[in-house]
Amino acid sequence: MAMNTLFDRIFGRSEKSSRDIAKERLVFALQADRVTINPAKMDQVRQELFAVLSRHFEIDSTNLDFSVEREGTATALVASIPIRRVKAE
Amino acid sequence: MADTGRVIVITSGKGGVGKTTTTANVGMALAQMGEKVAMIDADIGLRNLDLALGLENRIVYDMVDVVEGRAKLRSALIKDKRNQNLVLLPAAQTRDKSAVNPEQMKQVVAELQEEGYTFVLIDCPAGIEQGFRNATAGANEAIVVTNPEMSSVRDADRIVGLLEAQDLRNPRLIVNRIRPRMVKVQEMLAVEDVQEVLGNAVKLLGVVPDDEAIITSTNRGEPVSLLETSQSGLAYRNIARRLRGEEVPFLDLDEKDPGFFGRLKKLFAAG
C-alpha cells in the first residue's frame, strides 16, 4: 500500500488519501453540526430578540421573518423585522 | 477540605471507544503513584468497569444500594488487592439509569472526598441522556476519549459542547487506538488532525496506541498500565503523570527502525 502511494505520488496519479478525505468530510460535518439549531431554541431566540427590539420600536409582528440561511460553509441568521415607528425616549 | 480532591468524568458520547479501559488504567496508574483513587462506574445497568479491573467477583453492594440507603458507601467500595489506594464503586446491573439522579451522584462524590480520595474518576456511559447528566453532575474536570475515526470525533465534538453547558470547560482529550503504521501511509486520521478539527478549547492529554496487550490484559483483569513492557501501558502511565501536573513528552509511536540485524531477522522470518 505504501509503495502504491509512493508510485502514485511520483507519477502524479495521486488520489486523495483516505486520511485527507476523512478530515475534509469531518470538517464539513462538524461545521454543519455546530450551527444546527433546534426549533425550541430558535423560538426562544426569536422571542428574546423581539422583546429587546420592542423596547425601542413598534414592530409589525405579522410580517416577521426569521431564518437560518446557509451558503457554502457560511451560516447566517437572517431576520427581517418591519417597524412601524421608533418609540419615544 | 471537601473540595480539594479532583473529580474527573471520563466521557466520549460514542460507545466502544475505550472509556472504561481508560478509566481503569489511568486510575490504576494514579494509585501506583500514591494517589488515593476512587472509581465510580456510572453506567447503571451495564456494569463493566469491574471486569476491566478484575474485581467482578467481589461485588456485594452497588451504587444504587448506596443511593437508596441499603448499604453504607464504605461497605459498597471494593478495595483493590494489588493496590490499597484504589477502590471501585460498582454500577447496579439490574436497574437502569433513572435509578440515580444528579443530586445523588453529587452526594456520593462529596462523601468520597470527605473520605480523603484525591482522585475520583467517573466512568460515564455512552450517550447524551440521563446517564451522561448523572456522570457529569459531580465532576469538576472532564476527559474526552476518542478514536481517530470520523464518527467518534464527531460525537466528541458534540460532547465538548454538552460539557460546556454543564460548566465543564476545556476538557482534555485522549486519542485512543492510534495505528501509527496507518497514519504513516495516510490511511488514518492523525492525532493532529483530530486536534485541529476539535479546536483549541480541547487540550491533548494523551495518545494511546492500538495495542493487543490491552485485549490480553483485560482478559486477565489486569489493567495494562501495570505492564511495564507494553506501549499502551506506558501511554496510560504518562497520562496519569500529566494529570498530576508533570510535563511529559508525548510518545513517539513511529515504528522504530529495526536496524540491520532486525531487518535480517525479518527477512529470514518472512522467508
Describe this structure in words.
The complex is a heterodimer of chains A (89) and B (271). Chain A has three helices and four strands. Chain A has helices at 2-10, 18-34, 39-54; strands at residues 57-59, 65-71, 74-80, 83-86. The longest helix of chain A is centred in the N-terminal third of the chain and has 17 residues, at 18-34. Chain B is of the alpha/beta class. In chain B, strands 3-4-2-5-1-6-7-8 form an eight-stranded mixed beta sheet, sandwiched between helices. In chain B, a hairpin with a 6-residue loop joins strand 3 and strand 4. The longest helix of chain B is centred in the middle third of the chain and has 16 residues, at 150-165. The termini of chain B are far apart. Chain A binds chain B through residues 1-2, 5, 17-20, 22-23, 25-27, 29-30, 33-34, and chain B through 149-150, 153-154, 157-158, 161, 183-190, 193, 196-197.
| N-to-C series of helices and strands of chain A | HHHEEEE
What is the straight-line distance between the termini of chain B? 65 Å
Low-confidence stretches of chain B: none
Query: Helix amount of chain B, in percent?
Result: 40-55%
How much of the polypeptide of chain B forms β-strand, as a percent range? 15-25%
Spell out the helices and strands of chain B N to C.
Answer: EHEHHHEEHEHEHEHHEHHH
| Biggest sheet architecture of chain A | 2 strands, antiparallel
- Note the total helix count of chain A: 3
Looking at the structure, what is the overall shape of chain B? globular
Question: Number of DSSP strands of chain B?
Answer: 8
Average pLDDT taken over every residue of chain A = 84
Number of helices of chain B: 12
Structural class of chain B: alpha/beta
Overall number of strands of chain A: 4
The SS-based structural class of chain A is alpha+beta
- Largest sheet of chain B, if any? 8 strands, mixed
What is the rounded Rg of chain A? Answer: 24 Å
Strand order of the largest sheet of chain B: 3-4-2-5-1-6-7-8
Largest inter-chain contact set = A-B, 16 and 18 residues
Quote the average pLDDT of chain B.
Answer: 93
Query: How far apart are the termini of chain A?
Result: 73 Å
